[in-house]
Amino acid sequence: MKFSRVVSLLAVLVAAAVPFSAGGAAAAPADGGPAFGEYVALGDSWAADATLSQITTVFAPLNCVQSARNYAKQVAAALAVPVFRDATCGGATTHNMTAPQSGNPPQFDRLTPTTDLVTIGIGGNDAGLAATVTDCVTLDPAVSPCLNTLVRNGVDQMSINIAAAEPRVTATIDGIRERAPHARILLLDYFEGIGLEGGCFPEIPISDADAVWLGSKLLEIDAMLARVAAATGVEFVNTYEGSNGHDACQPVGTRWVEGLMPFSGNPFGLAVPFHPNQLGADYQARRVLEALSAAG
After folding, report:
1. Using omega within 30 degrees of 0 as the cis cutoff, is the peptide bond preceding 262 cis?
2. CA geometry: angle at 1 spanning 136 and 19, to 5°?
3. Residue 227: Cβ within 10 Å count
């Protein structure tokens, strides 16, 4: 996505980074010993649970806008993992697994042969869907800029982009296995950010037609990620299922993702538009822990 356009000016308003804290996380396993010894979190802004109100620079630079309470940190605390590294960074693509990103080292650099748990959320930026959300903004609800620009003569450019991203995500899974051959790998999808029923103009100034299109493209990306998980034999964490009714059009306390305004009620303060709030991060953490428990 054009992530820097959203956060570059807002991030400088953050006076100090928020230190990572395990407070409020679930207790350690009942048997007294950690289930995993070395956990590495990889991914983009939805894995970082990008924030402007509770940024931490413990694991990544300020511009990664990584939350001190993102799902990976909650999972690490809940499992009492002795060694934890969070490489997630806003705006990351599969390319940034092996290449640096604005001060954030290549994310794969955090993997080692002793890494035994990896979570990853990636692919949305490769397809360009996240950047497209802001391109759909309009002052006229009868106008659908995204459909008018990206769907022509029955050809959907976003669908083409999603298909092109699939081999890159597959190669990323292969790269994790090469560097951490004994790791249990969980690939997360994206939960519902906008409903398939339409938008909520003018609260979010996107036409109903573009909103439905965006929702369907998100499902396409999630289906692509599910295919990659099946083809590579990694575990797929379906966060979309169970997220209906918590999209950005819902009121504070119900929505798990913020809308266009860069403010959030969970927690109260500056937010990254069209990204998970704390309720969304908490939901992602629950789904990961459920997956680990069910298959463990």
Report:
1. no
2. 120
3. 14
Distance (Å, whole) CA 196 – CA 187: 24
Side chain identity, residue 52: L
Q: What is the pLDDT of residue 295?
A: 61
pLDDT (tens digit, 9 = 90+) per residue, 106-129? 999 999 999 999 999 999 999 999
- Cβ neighbours of residue 192 under 8 Å, at least 6 residues apart? 215, 218, 240, 243, 244, 246, 247, 257
Confidence of residue 20 (pLDDT cuts 50, 70, 90): very low
pTM of the model: 0.90
Angle in degrees, 0-180, between the axes of helices 278-295 and 71-78, rounded to the nearest 10: 40
Q: Which long-range contacts (CB under 8 A, 24 or more apart) does 94-103 make?
A: 94/122, 94/123, 94/126, 94/165, 94/168, 94/169, 94/171, 94/172, 95/168, 97/42, 97/122, 97/172, 97/175, 98/175, 101/64, 102/4, 102/61, 102/63, 102/64, 103/61, 103/63
Map out the domains of the chain with their CATH numbers: 3-295 (3.40.50.1110)
